TrEMBL record:
Job description of the protein: Mutarotase that catalyzes the interconversion of beta-D-galactose and alpha-D-galactose during galactose metabolism. Beta-D-galactose is metabolized in the liver into glucose 1-phosphate, the primary metabolic fuel, by the action of four enzymes that constitute the Leloir pathway: GALM, GALK1 (galactokinase), GALT (galactose-1-phosphate uridylyltransferase) and GALE (UDP-galactose-4'-epimerase). Involved in the maintenance of the equilibrium between the beta- and alpha-anomers of galactose, therefore ensuring a sufficient supply of the alpha-anomer for GALK1.
Name assigned to this protein: Aldose 1-epimerase
Annotated source species: Magallana gigas
Family: Belongs to the aldose epimerase family.
Protein's UniProt keywords contain Plastid: no
Length: 352
């Protein structure tokens, strides 16, 4: 028997300081999974998933300036030195990020000072999907071309949270989107991710520089015989301190060509029995284990978030692609072309 689609419900989430209203959209499927999203930054505010005993907890983090739960764009992740060259012309972007604490920003990250995570999108319900649209003016945050972006969310009765991105441009530009959701499958306010078990479908990763530890060097290296080998399930508590400089992971994993939908990762939490599968059309997935989370960050419902208490599985093209155009898959979008990307977060229980 075919199940009815999961239809979203709209209500008001509040207003911005300028008076504009923010809308929330709630999905609840036949398996008691609930997802809520808002049209400010396309943020996923809540993901409520039953555990093996039927207990329902929120496994997603509160949105804040660290991009928790939001869409990042126009270009997610870093662009070294805040510069890129396209068709022979150099573009300069706002410098907002540094690898070192107490160092002046020297790189661009996540689309600029006011990237897509801080934009109010036009939003509407289209059948069983919520669609959100933002038109970024030519030159916004230094990027060329007027970029029209539509993000859609859908929850299925198979516990799949489906995110689709599409975009068109009026001038040649660069585009790379992700959702910066932070997960803790125990519950959103649990203090660590040690008991999570992660598997990543990648034979290679992008190596970061020794003297600028969050910036790719351009080298693609095999994961075999390194701390980056997650081809078999690995308990995160046993691996975090093996990451570079003992700071966990802020690295891109190479999944293969873009286009086909493929499994990127499986994240398990044996104590609760919860499982998260990640599928994507993207060629990369950025693993981030929260090393840069500001200590004592205030979260939702009075929670306090600390470093290493969540994990991000960010499907995207490789970070700093404009600097390594000869080695990394292209993120150039031209007039007349349609950008499209799809990622699925599938929630369930670990098979017994």
């Amino acid at each position: 028997m075919t199940q009815s689609p999961v239809l979203p419900v709209q209500d008001s989430y509040g207003r911005l300081s300028d008076g504009r209203e923010v809308y929330r959209y709630s999905f609840t499927n036949s398996r008691n999974v609930t997802v809520r999203v808002i049209n400010y930054g396309c943020v996923i505010t809540d993901i409520l998933v039953p555990d093996k005993d039927g207990n329902i907890d929120d496994i997603n983090y509160e949105p804040n300036p660290r991009c928790f739960g939001s869409i990042c764009g126009r270009v997610v992740n870093v662009i070294s030195n805040g510069k890129f060259v396209l068709d022979g012309k150099e573009y300069s972007l706002p410098l907002t990020f540094s690898s070192l604490e107490n160092e002046s920003p020297k790189h661009a990250i996540h689309g600029g000072v006011k990237g897509f995570h801080l934009k109010l999108f036009e939003s509407w319900i289209d059948g069983d999907k919520v669609k959100m649209k933002y038109v970024s003016p030519d030159g916004e945050e230094g990027f060329p071309g007027e970029l029209t972006t539509i993000v859609s969310y859908q929850l299925t009765n198979q516990n799949e949270l489906v995110t689709e991105y599409s975009a068109t441009t009026t001038k040649p530009t660069i585009v790379n989107f992700t959702n910066h959701a932070y997960f803790n499958l125990q519950k959103h306010d649990y203090p660590n991710i040690d008991d999570h078990v992660l598997q990543i479908s990648a034979d290679k990763y992008t190596v970061n520089k020794d003297d600028d530890i969050f910036i790719p060097s351009g080298e693609l290296r095999a994961v075999a015989d390194t701390p980056f080998d997650f081809r078999k399930p690995v308990r995160l508590g046993d691996r975090l301190k093996e990451g570079p400089h003992g700071r966990g992971f802020f690295h891109n994993f190479c999944l293969g060509e873009s286009g086909p939908l493929k499994q990127a990762a499986v994240l398990d939490h044996p104590p609760t029995g919860r499982r998260l599968e990640v599928l994507t059309t993207e060629p990369g997935m950025h693993l981030y284990t929260g090393c840069n989370t500001i200590p004592h960050t205030k979260g939702k419902y009075g929670a306090v978030y600390e470093p290493f208490c969540s994990v991000c599985l960010e499907t995207q093209h490789y970070p700093d692609t404009p600097t390594h155009q000869d080695k990394f898959p292209s993120i150039v979008l031209r007039p007349g072309e349609n950008f499209y990307s799809k990622t699925i977060f599938k929630f369930g229980l670990i098979p017994q």
